[in-house]
Write a structure and sequence with these properties.
Largest sheet: 7 strands, mixed
Low-confidence stretches: none
Distance between the termini: 40 Å
Strand content: over 45%
Number of helices: 0
Length: about 120
Amino acid sequence: QVQLVESGGGLVQAGGSLRLSCAASGIDFSTYRMAWYRQAPGKSRDMVASIGRGGSTSYVNSVKGRFTISRDNAKNTVYLQMNSLKPEDTAVYYCNAWNYINPEYWGQGAQVTVSS
């Protein structure tokens, strides 16, 4: 059974930091591209950051220089370090696992709320 379990969300003031974690089980983690998406109320679910099997990263422009995605293949875990948080970063953040061969998997989501 595949599970992606996010943790680390919460309430923080603008300018603060949070680190999200996503622990994966039931998949060959190192063969997956991992990504973080977010969905604000009434909006679509959009990719925030991704990290490839080899460690290459990409970010949406709005978080470049503030967010850092990383992975630890030994722990089957992907992280999202979020600094200088803004109220517009408020959303539910979802962990995503994808590769060419297998189905795509999602976590249950972690609420991040940034107060002004």
